[in-house]
Amino acid sequence: MSQKILIVGAGFAGVWGALGAARVLDVAKISSRDVEITLISPKPELQIRPRLYESEPARMAAPLLPLLEAIGVGFVEGVVDEICVADKTVRVVGANGQERTLAYDRLLLTSGSKLNRPPVPGLADHAFAVDRSEDAVVLEHHLEELAKLPDSRARNTAVVVGCGFTGIEVATELPARMRKLFGPDAAIRVVVVGSQPEIGPDLGPNPRPFVAAAFDSLGIEAVLGSGVVSIDADGARTASGAHIEAKTVIWAGGMRASTLAAQVSSHLDSLGRVEVASDLRVPEAPDVFVAGDVARARCDDDGRYALMSCQHAIVMGQFGGHNVAADLIGIPTLEYRQPFYATCLDLGEWGAIYSEGWDRQIKLTHTEGKARKQIINTQWIYPPAPNRNEALAAGNPQASFG
């Protein structure tokens, strides 16, 4: 009877995890008849989440079946809603509601993260998001419908709640998107609201002057130090009592790890991520490895931890896939390390800023930064072509990213 590796989630960590696991078996000359690798996800596609702030979000997905077939990885369509570590099984619910139980010898959990949606009055009914492709498509249809309405201040105003990375990219993309839909002469107003005192609180001081310059250039307003306390069909109200009239409110209030994390470990951080060992193993469930947004993993020798980003998820997936297969066939696992860190922040028509290092030393700005962002968004974060040799090489955890 063959041994079984299950990978839960087809985000960046899951896809590159499948590549990494298949590579180990290929190098060891172990066939899929002896060790089966199966990827489980609601759809056989990788949503390119870092691009969902752009227009035409329905295009931001990469098909996976040809790639998985090329490397000998199976696919099960469905949602995992239960992991039983004691029995080494997962329960999968299909689109038709039918349940099935799959057994594993090793599990790689890469179920990712979701937008944090706190119980703010009106958020569920009146706010839009760009967390998932489905969310971004709803927003796009909303903007297209607004274009059919008479010109008004409320129609032409968008409020972005959240002044972090996603909020900044959404806000700086909106003026051009809205002008294209509403007409070049429309008086577009974009307001970013954040409870923090500064834009991009996690970005550090180096990028902020460039973000401020982009906001000024694009006419984007920032309301800081006063978060949104309620949302309605006519706009958003801040903690200071001000009501911003707008037909479009977009929530970008941070991320939280998949709730499946709590089913494999009781040691979670404030974002709900699993505290993993250096090889991405769950200490209290040694047959389970975790990678991507659902893992709190130390990525260098200076005590820094991976962020919820595709940059870290891809490399962590390579390591996680390698280790889950290596552990199963009895070869040493690898210590996850990713010392190189870069940030590329899209700032709409202003351009983009590219920085390197955790202190974010600015390397490229304006059009040069935009060119780098376009390479990242259209090449580096996409899966390899369904060519077996190329695909397996992409699973190498010791290859550099970017």
From TrEMBL:
Its cofactor is FAD. InterPro entries: FAD/NAD-bd_sf, FAD/NAD-binding_dom, NADH-Q_oxidoreductase. Residues 4-317 form the FAD/NAD(P)-binding domain. Keywords: FAD, Flavoprotein, Oxidoreductase. It comes from the Bacteria. Gene3D superfamilies: 3.50.50.100. Belongs to the NADH dehydrogenase family. This is FAD-dependent oxidoreductase.
